[in-house]
Amino acid sequence: MSAPGTGGSRGQRASRRALRDEVYDALLELLVAGEWESGAQLGIDALATRLDVSPTPIREALVQLESTGLVMRSALRGYKVAPPLDAGAINELFDARVLLEVGALRQIPDDAWQELTGTLAASLADQRRQAELLTGSTDVPSLRAYLAADRAFHDAVLAATGNRYLQQMSGHIGIHGERLRQFVEQRHSDADLAITEHGAVLAAIEAGDREAAVAAMTAHLAGVRERTLRDASAVSR
Questions:
Q1: What is the Cα–Cα distance from 148 to 131, expressed in whole angstroms?
Q2: Both 226 and 121 in a single domain?
């Protein structure tokens, strides 16, 4: 048994961190899903009631979320949902994705390519299935399922590098990318084009042609950038 004030306090701190992390994940999921419109106030008491927790972990989670750029804090008014990314921010986001994901393809060890082929093939098959379910549907769960399958394809490339820091960086960028696509793809879905472009990346990897894979991924990200900018512009009008 731990001495008073030592093991017990450590357990309390661990429990508090776990609750804070759970609240953070719950709020992040709601933000990415487009639960609130940009500019919406995020009242701490209202969120605490919704998630059935005390205000403290809500407040701590909002502080963390502020660092992601998904929420903003203003003096005397508390937290609110950040506005959608503008054209400049979208371009910066895709510049970062190109550096990260194209760079990752150059870093994957030769002996990891064969395993990556199988992983990407399975991911692409799931993406096709989700796209079929998405056809003609406008509900958020179907859209989120498709976006998750799309993201899994890119995550597999980062995972194949074996570099934990690249994967962490990708996760941070992915938060903004998924929320952005959630917003613009309410109007438009580029599923067919994205699947075709992913297929080109996979074919190059299957052929063991690293430079062709780099070119295919570069072309894919350029296509997604163009479509995202177009759709974001249409939504803002």
A1: 11
A2: yes
Give the separation between CA 89 and CA 108, rounded to whole angstroms: 29
Please state the pTM of the whole predicted model: 0.75
163 located within any domain:
yes
Tens-place pLDDT, residues 96-151: 999 999 999 999 999 999 899 999 999 999 999 998 887 766 566 777 788 889 98
Q: Please, what sign has the CA dihedral across residues 190, 195, 201, 204? A: negative
Is 2 a domain residue?
no
Q: Determine phi and psi for 162, rounding to 5 degrees.
A: 75, 10
Q: Identify the CATH number of the domain in which residue 113 sits.
A: 1.20.120.530
Q: Please tell me whether residues 60 and 136 are part of one structural domain.
A: no
Rounded to whole angstroms, how far apart are CA atoms 24 and 19? 9
CA dihedral 89, 91, 95, 97 (to 10 degrees): 80
Q: Is the dihedral of CA 219, 225, 229, 230 positive or negative?
A: positive
